[in-house]
């Protein structure tokens, strides 16, 4: 394995601006309020549609579990299962191996990925702001290091391009080859199922020779470099990855097994449309039972639902914070008052965002599970009641 020997360079740049006046800060706050309003409204859409999606997906999975038929054999196509949701598991197979003639490489797999990296300058930026003599000063430290990157780094955007210039393109491009025909037994997988085969593993190049005179193999990389141990900016290294081994290989082992749930159409496995309006075409690596597959799908749906709920709540919190920022700006001349107002605004944003998020979720459930919707709706009042109970009695009056 060749080592990377990048040299790091640094320089510091200081810029100064006059301290913004009250009207300028107020103008900036007004722009932030508009962005906050947009973010606030989008959070309602995200939360509401997420609940409908989650419930629809759960209902579709329950429907699929009640209808799915395990196949007795994957090597024969039964007309009795035409149009029905079926479950099968078996080894992947493809009709032809995938090639990369530029490097003399071939493999019997569903996907073959060529991954190209170029040795380039990369800029890092670390900024600190401080006030001095009535001005806002910004001290920025720029550092440059040479690294392997899979995307072209545009050095024109660097603070100092001289001495850190990168090539504008790569001489060799990355690409992914996909087998045109992928089967499990006698059944052909749809494009959607093939797309789910993405558990890429790096391909060992130890059994290959150097493909060209200007290419050197080192470890699991092909290097386009005069001296791979001391690469220069613009040098390339190429690695390969595969997914879905579809034939027995003396170095890689047996073909990968997958479990599929989809609709049978002739000898093809295609998407199944449920009554709830969802689509079922499921593929997992390994040999799984029907119950195991649907349990994994329910767990995936739950994780996605909570992730989007958290994103919706965060969007609402940010939106409320931006819309109420004007109160902070009005008192920012008084440090003590400013800090108290800042804490109060954050607490207000947390309480309101939590209550409105719960209320939106309950409305989303209203069409599917009314009782749960009512309980969540009542729960949405709790943050406001708790916040109000902490206010001193005199202030309440």
UniProtKB/TrEMBL annotation:
Annotated compartments: Endomembrane system; Endoplasmic reticulum membrane; Nucleus envelope
The protein, known as: TMM43 protein
Membrane topology reported for the UniProt record: Multi-pass membrane protein
Alphabetic keyword roster: Endoplasmic reticulum, Membrane, Nucleus, Transmembrane, Transmembrane helix
The keyword Metal-binding belongs to this UniProt entry's keyword annotation: no
Family statement: Belongs to the TMEM43 family.
Stretches that traverse the bilayer: 30-48, 306-328, 340-359, 371-391
A Pfam cross-reference name: TMEM43
Keyword Transmembrane: yes
GO cellular component, one term: endoplasmic reticulum membrane
Annotated GO biological process: lipid metabolic process; nuclear membrane organization
InterPro entries from the UniProt entry: TMEM43_fam (IPR012430)
